[in-house]
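User: Quick one: structure for sequence A, then sequence B.

Assistant: Sequence A:
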Amino acid sequence: MTTQGILVVHPGWHEGDAAVLDRATYQRYQDELQEGTRVLFYMKDPVDALVGEAQVTGNPVQAEIEPEAPVSDPVSPRAEEPVRRMNDPQPTRIDQRTYHLPYLMLHSIDTISQIPLGTIRARIGSEFGVFDDEWIPLTEEQYDALVGEWEHNAS
């Protein structure tokens, strides 16, 4: 079963960058995010537009975010305080896990124009909005309407 949707990416994302999902999003949509899934990349503020199209090429891969390095305190510790060493292991919290979605870019910002939020709403409904969701499922008709916008602009 082929599914389709919008993957929200951070400002500054470029083709070739990891397509990242948080743990909760992956768990909620793992049945949809499989090889063959069609993806439209939506970049948040300040762009607020679709910036590319891709196809998922495999299962999402779990990757853990490295814990932040402890900050060394420039003030000398008092004798009764333990000294924290920079190489002391830091536990990685389970909720920091992310998943990288392997993809093949079909159309990128280098070959197509952006589809702004207003046009997205005109094509698939005025209730469309991007909040904190990273994956927004679309019907095949909605997906085709958005991809058709690129085809319309190319002619």
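Sequence B:
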Amino acid sequence: MNQYTLLFGPESYDEYRKVFSGVEKYEGQDMKFSSLKGDPIYSEVKSIVKEKEADKERLTKIKSEIKNLVLDVLNKYNVKLNGEYEESLLGAELLDIGSTGRGTNVVGEGGLGGVGVENLILAYEGNIKKAFGEFYKVAINPDGTIKTLEELKKDFKILDAGMNLRFNGHDNFVYNMNEDGYTKMIGVIKKYIKV
């Protein structure tokens, strides 16, 4: 008779290791993907991609205008703009690292934002249907009505893994949403995820 109890067996270990799926460095299992082609939302996704392509020219123009305004201010105060790979402590650095710089922006505003959606999906094992299904469950009252955005903000969190040094905490992407974005998200989930 064994006097010890196994607390962390092979099954538990395998379950824990799922966190590393798709991460070759840690010998994670292959990440599973599914194609959207047979999905009813495929045409909508293609439509969004076309909208983004059409919007690219407008965004490029706006980014150029912003850069010129920033350069004017830097010149006014005799601050040199450093080159992309320059490591000087003197001067300024201008980076386009937001969703428009990565090309992950969505035409329109008021939603979780690109990184917020990424964090939501990753929080549910990379499964978009599970992520939006859980979001929807929390957004619905027991009587079937939709919670207000303020109620949702109390009940649901999508936290950024990185620390926001401005307030020494983690961003909650639900706070990025406005009423219009929240209403649209609920509508899309009802229509396409079929929760």
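The mean pLDDT is 82. The chain has two domains: 35-108, 110-195.

User: Thanks, that's what I needed.
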